[in-house]
Amino acid sequence: MAPMTPKEQDWNERLEREVYQRTLALQDSLKRLEALNSMRAQFVAIMSHELRTPATALIGYADTLKEKWAKLPEKKIQKYLDVISEESSRMVTLMQEIFEISRILEGKLSLQFQTADLIPLIGSAVKEFRLRYADKSFGFKETADSLEAKVDTLYFKSALTHVLLNAVKYTPDKGNILLFVESKGGEAVIRIEDDGPGIPREYREKAFEPFFRSMDNVNRKTPGAGLGLTIARGVIEAFKGRVVVADKLTGKQGCAVVISIPLAGGSS
Amino acid sequence: MKKRTVLVADDEVNLLNLLKDNLEEEGYEVFTAADGEEALKVWVQKRPDAVVLDIEMPRMNGWKVLEEIRKVTLSNEVPVILILSAYAQHEDIQRGMALGANKYLTKPFKTRALVETIEEYLKGK
User: Fold this and answer.
1) ipTM of this predicted complex?
2) Which of A25, A68, B33, B43 has the fewest CB atoms within 10 Å, measured from its CB?
3) Cβ A217–B35 below 8 Å, yes or no?
């Protein structure tokens, strides 16, 4: 075989480099797919566990009613029916959240983007929470007149509601939940601070994983499966924003969830 | 005849109340605990005739509570029934056996089955 011309040698080297790079890229995608797959498998396992808990209560209360109806006092019957209704709602909420998350994971959220001022949206969420959770105090401080961003307003409110629900869950009665809203570096920054036990630094990223609830007592006594922050991050990232857990501005006990969303037109 | 006593520990309050009601109806005196630490405390104070333990509990899990109970009892003295989650694997059952559990129930289980299991172990005691 004739020796390669310098040009051919060059092509050959380029080809080899290309093959090498493509192989690396393929290996990388394979790794990511494997990680995604294992996350899915884990998700299904945890989901099955989370659904079994309300299922156990439902079966138990329904069977007890069926077997002992004639013997049970009216008050007990009423109480059991209330539990059945409560646990069924819990199951439905859980199923809705699972559905929402699976759409987020698959990137299949169908969003209707529009440029909207976030301040009135946040204001109305705060108003709803004040009415719903009268035992907690909600503060709302905004330092911008308007914060226009490109979002799907329904999903924005849903994400904010998940973060606020999380704050409510961990804040003791008579505790404070504070919202700080400002425009910073071309972004709308929404900071939600609570009076809860806080999240240790090493768990702050984990808090966004599906079904994460740290194992301390306070957390386990609160309802919910630990999907709220996962949903909130999924939605905000679809708006090209970010959600992180941080320290409170005062540095006191509690947790701050900070949502940043690029402002429309990139103004600061 | 003195009432037989059962300690039930689970962090799911609805489940805890359900088991309590059903066992009380069968004539047991029931002590409840919403986490592992409380379960151990009640165990030490009351020394019930039988124990029902959920595995996944805050503060102290069911494995640890069982381990503590078996430091001072034999499995034929005080029956301990474990409630296993959906994660129940062969190794969980082996672990339970090694620690001296008497029986397992996997969620979702029938309340009737739990009551009957306790009856069976406490028969003639």
Assistant:
1) 0.85
2) A25
3) yes
